[in-house]
Amino acid sequence: MRDRRALLRQLAAGSVLPLVGCSLGPTEDGVDATPDEPTASDARTPSRTPTATLTPTMPSDTPTPTPTATPTATPTATPTPTPTATPTPEPTPTPRLGEQVGEFTGADAEQYDEFGAALAAADDTLLVAAPGDDTSASESADGSALAIGSAYVFERADGAWTQRTRLVADAAALPFDYRFAADVAFDGTTAVVGALELVGPHRIPKGGAFVFETVDGEWERTATLRADRAGEDIYDGFGQSVALDGDTVLVGANWADDDADETPGATYVFTRGGGSDASESGDGATDADRSVEWTQSARLVPEDAVNNSDVGRAVALEGDTAVLGAPNYQTPDGDNIGKAYAYERSGGEWTHRATLTPAADHDHEDYVGSSVALDGDRVLVAAWGDDDPNGFYAGAAYVFERTDGDWELDGKLAAEDGDRKDVFGSDVALAGDHALIGAEHDRAEAGSAYLFDRSEGEWRQTAKLLPDDHDSFDLFGTSVALSGSQALVGAIHEASETADQVGAVSVFSV
How many CA atoms lie within 13 A of 450 on its CB side? Predict the structure, then answer.
């Protein structure tokens, strides 16, 4: 990843370099009107006034007094109490499309952690890579190996993300110094974390991948995966990328060699649940204390891959479909156009099904396949060097759709306000009719991310995601993920309250 940023800064200075080895998103209260004040009933009036009865008078000098008639009193009506209106509670506003609704970092985050370098979301769980985290540093038993980096597990409740735990490496598991969390993948109760050597010849590292599982509610490392061709002198980049679905893991080794001593790259497939102890059978999985066996079941190398193609720089997996990015694929004319490959599994065997390239819109230094995402019968392929329509290294992304078993181009996505050197496509995510694309060098490397939706057969940009606070060189958009009604975007150089370049993840409504 640092290689990619170094490359782009040199490009900004006017240099053009090859990508070899370079690492790359109320209404008012309704209150009822007070009823009219009840009016007391009119006084009941007798139908007639009683008349006094007169007694006949006898002749007398004293007249007999006439009795006075007493009228009947009218009862006073009791007024009906007036009901008091209860105010309607203020409704919680629904976040607008693209509105930021949260931000978080690791509880122990420090400078240069690179928190948010990679994201993996499933249901209400999120895995966040922090490959620069040195608080997990530990030496092997003989003091020969050192590991840095960690991966944080967050869980969502009522829309808010809370840190659950932190996954760290075991330096004794690999025979070299390495950075843990080069990439992360998550599915259900299993997580896979890639690890690369800290320093390697020509910056082409050795590597491995760690499997973690929840045991009685706690996360435990259950396996360490290495390629069957790995060795002390093998620098293949194994662990550069990882993907996970159910009992299958993909691990990209973008500098893996072939039988002709060239390095086209490869992607390894591991499956869980079969075989004898892998550490004895030599199938590539190693861990003495594992609870379930992982077996290397395939090694995928496209037939047309050439030297330095970078196969496995990015990988995606769902069910029996796998997508491999090869952004450095070079034509016989020397153009680094890049490719992506779709594989399908049947009867336990993987077959190259299609090459995903925009044949009519392919150019030098497009780097198609720099990032890939897969959801059902749809694939999103980034080409962060594409200069059409927004200029040199502005970037673009292509959508491919599978219909009746055949893959066809469904659309090309580019930022409406895109500009030179934005690197649109630094990372991509796909969920149904939503596509999220990072552009980490937009706005003087402050970065941005773009949301696209598919409606009536067309892909349209619906929002540009920007954090509430941002600075140049935050690299917002280094990583992206979609989870339910939320978009998550990593910014590996964002500052915290206590330190610079810590990294953070911002949450948006989609």
Answer: 26
Q: Are strands 138-139 and 448-455 parallel, antiparallel or unpaired?
A: unpaired
Bridge partner list, 211: 192, 223
Tokens of 270: 């591991």
Q: Convert the pLDDT of each residue in 169-214 to its tens digit.
A: 988 889 889 999 999 999 989 999 999 998 777 778 999 999 999 9
Euclidean distance between CA atoms 182 and 195, whole angstroms: 5
Please tell me the distance from the alpha carbon of residue 224 to that of residue 287, in angstroms, as a whole number.
6
Cα atoms in the 13 Å half-sphere on the side-chain side of 392: 7
Domain that holds residue 238: 125-274+291-301
Closest CA to 452 of 423, 482, 420, 413: 413
pLDDT the model gives residue 497: 86
CA atoms of 165 and 337, how far apart (whole Å): 41
Residue 414 lies in a domain: no
Residue 167 lies in a domain: yes
The CATH number covering residue 296 comes to 2.130.10.130
* 3 sits in which H/E element: helix 2-12
Residue 23 in contact with residue 6, Cβ under 8 Å?
no
- Structural domain includes residue 135: yes
* Residue 77 scores a pLDDT above 80: no
Residue 269 lies in a domain: yes
Note the pLDDT tens digit of each residue in 370-401: 999 999 999 999 999 999 999 999 999 999 99
DSSP letters spanning 296-321: EEEEE--TT--TT--BTSEEEEETTE
**207 phi and psi, to 5 degrees?**
-170, 180
Torsion sign over Cα 176, 181, 183, 184: positive
State the total domains in the chain. 1
**What tens digit of pLDDT does each residue of 475-484 get?**
999 999 999 9
List own/partner pairs for 91-95 with CB under 8 A and 24 or more apart: 91/26, 93/26, 95/509
3-state secondary structure at position 202 = helix
How many CA within 13 A on the CB side of residue 206?
A: 15
> pLDDT-derived band of residue 148, with 50, 70 and 90 as boundaries?
very high
163/153 Cα distance (integer angstroms): 6
DSSP H helical ranges for 327-431: none
Whether the CB-CB separation of 80 and 470 falls below 8 Å is answered with no
Strand order through the sheet with 349-356: 314-318, 321-326, 339-346, 349-356
Q: State how beta strands 406-413 and 458-465 pair.
A: unpaired
Q: According to the model, what pLDDT value does residue 136 have? A: 65
Alpha carbons 505 and 438: distance in angstroms, whole number: 13
Alpha-carbon distance 424 to 412, whole Å?
Answer: 12
Q: Give the pLDDT band of residue 53 (cuts 50, 70, 90).
A: very low
The CA distance from 407 to 377, in Å, is 9
